[in-house]
């Protein structure tokens, strides 16, 4: 049985054996000789001159994009004169363009190709005279990397197109992606010994599977690492890298790869490397944020001498010895040794990752997307894809902290089932709901003030099945809620139209195993990808989606900084505002009023009836509160952070300018259709439903809670206390001074300073995101009560600390 038949038999047998059987694939070497070299056909013909404009300082990198930055995309200027048209050459026609960018270490260019190109080629030659090329068709093409500040580009077509090509942008490289010496000194070259002969032989083979991937993401040129893998479609050049490196078809199309970028002997100068570039881009086959992995199919074959890496889908046990091979800092190839230390849940990812502790060498920027390997049968098998590192010491993994930080690898046993159908000898037939955005099941939703869920019955049909739904948002500012229901444990990812991940979630609530998220979005096309948390699980579920038009969220503590000592706690849920006004009565004693049903009147004006409550006894007495209508509250929001407050009390109108109160790092408050049991920011209106009529407004910024307790004095009159600076003691525990205030009456024509009095201590203990307890002392008397978030409309508000978005 030949190697191709053996691999197919292994795959079929493993699939037949069911989920309990792990899949394995051996290594193979690329067959034959390299494909023909490309060179210019008319090197002395006139060329139109184009130059790169200075960098756009306003251009920002895509949030969340990683990999080592080596350059930037620049707009194109041109010299005066006529652009040369197509010129005849033996066998066809060529058009020539020369691009330049002052000070560049190297260049690439994005070229717009006209219709009518037949058997096209694009060739680039740099200042060093070396030429690189690839076949092209109509549409967009990226030139290969060439060194120096000038690149001559030649486009060939067998027949003459009607229009000329155009250079759309120039990539200015500040750092050459070829040989350099920037990796940490603790990482040995792949030519060095690992002090184990069998492992040395395996590294010598596997190093020819590892490739430097150069690509363009938005406005930046970046490099990551990747691994050429063996499949049942051998010798199809499938390369695995990280999702955080390449997640879109546009980035994949820009790929050029650098092979054999390694020194010949241990410790040799990086300049002794003889890398080989293969340009032409790649097809984005499949990408998974949850596993932080992407499968690419290169447009051109792997070069002779490349090795297609074997892999193993068995779960990787803790303490297993590992080998990593990568291009740290984009440098020549290095290896690192270590062992799996733990399986870690990483912020922003719904699946756990392999945590790896290195004993020799490290991975760094530029290593992203490289493989995690284990030794089996004399060969290194792929077990994971590099995602990043822990930050226990506050810094990324490096030679200086390798004893304190772990590298993080996406798990191959999660990603492989999702790509198995694409790399099998016979591609799996598509199911009812496609696996990729291009095959998505389209839903039609209309924004509504009070939307109901649109259900879609769905099924994970086979291990590795992924369902993708397409949702079009017709107008900006609409709030999308998506969730699953049923017994199947699901994870979900929200993607934008290009394929970038906006949010990835495992469980939306602590007591449910189903995925769910709420997000306010701009107009456009979005995708939601649903997969089982167990990559081998199958089963039915229901996908639920709704679209609400609720607008800005005003949940916060508001004040007038020129009049410290009073405030307005706003809780915004759906189309209702609950406002608690903390002020002082005509005698200067603390009092409070409530607008419990504030509704939008028109535009940015909100208004509702204003009440004063009275109740005899302490909050826990259980006596019924009595509300008295005293007037009206009106709020006119001039922006998301400023407003005019006007309220009528007993015939007297008081008007104030207010803004959000900022005392530390304010959270981002957004809409949520879930119970917020997993939330770690506690900003909200809290109460005890068993003893209604009192409450606690909590403002949570950074590690500090400012809370205002609105309750009653011994006579049953309304009064309030504040924990003005509750410090975080541990997870969920905050303690601070409990303070009473006296101040100028709410109707006073001029503001005067308030007088605080410390009456005790308040302790807030949150046991989960939506439940906890408070304990406070007032003049030696202890009061204790459970509390929970008060819900009065939908969607609810969820506040997130900066960086938790």
Can you characterise this structure?
The chain has four helices and 56 strands. By secondary structure, the chain is mainly beta. It has four domains: 3-30 and 185-419, Thrombin, subunit H; 48-173, Sandwich (Jelly Rolls); 437-548, Jelly Rolls; 556-800, no CATH class.
Average predicted confidence as pLDDT? 91
Percent helix, as a range, is under 10%
Q: Could you say what the CATH architecture of the largest domain is? A: Beta Barrel
Largest sheet: 12 strands, antiparallel
Tally of DSSP helical segments: 4
* Distance between the ends: 53 Å
Strand coverage percent: over 45%
How many domains in all?
4
- Shape designation: elongated
Using the CA coordinates, give the radius of gyration.
Answer: 31 Å
- Topology-level CATH name of the largest domain: Thrombin, subunit H
CATH uppermost class of the largest domain = Mainly Beta
Low-confidence stretches: 1-20, 57-65
Instruction: Output the structural class.
Output: mainly beta
Quick overview of this protein structure:
With 805 residues, the chain is mostly beta strands.
Index terms:
mainly beta, about 5% helix, Jelly Rolls, elongated, 4 domains, disordered N terminus, 12-stranded antiparallel β-sheet, about 50% strand, about 800 residues, Thrombin, subunit H, single chain, 4 helices, 8-stranded antiparallel β-barrel, 56 strands
Reconstruct the topology from this structure:
Blueprint: H1 3-17, E1 24-25, E2 28-29, E3 48-52, E4 68-74, E5 76-78, E6 87-89, E7 92-100, E8 106-113, E9 120-126, E10 131-136, E11 139-142, E12 146-147, E13 150-157, E14 166-173, H2 197-206, E15 210-217, E16 220-229, E17 238-241, H3 249-253, E18 256-259, E19 276-278, E20 282-288, E21 293-298, E22 307-308, E23 311-312, E24 321-326, E25 334-345, E26 352-360, E27 371-376, E28 379-389, E29 407-411, H4 412-423, E30 441-443, E31 454-460, E32 467-473, E33 478-485, E34 490-495, E35 501-505, E36 516-521, E37 524-532, E38 539-548, E39 556-559, E40 567-573, E41 576-584, E42 590-602, E43 605-614, E44 626-637, E45 642-649, E46 652-660, E47 668-672, E48 684-687, E49 695-701, E50 704-712, E51 718-730, E52 733-742, E53 755-768, E54 771-778, E55 781-789, E56 796-800
Parallel strand pairs: 3-7, 30-32
Antiparallel strand pairs: 1-23, 2-22, 3-5, 4-14, 4-16, 6-7, 7-13, 8-11, 8-12, 8-14, 9-10, 9-13, 15-16, 15-18, 16-17, 17-21, 18-19, 20-21, 24-25, 24-27, 25-26, 26-29, 27-28, 28-29, 31-38, 32-37, 33-36, 33-38, 34-35, 34-37, 39-40, 39-46, 40-41, 41-42, 42-43, 43-44, 44-45, 45-46, 47-56, 48-49, ...
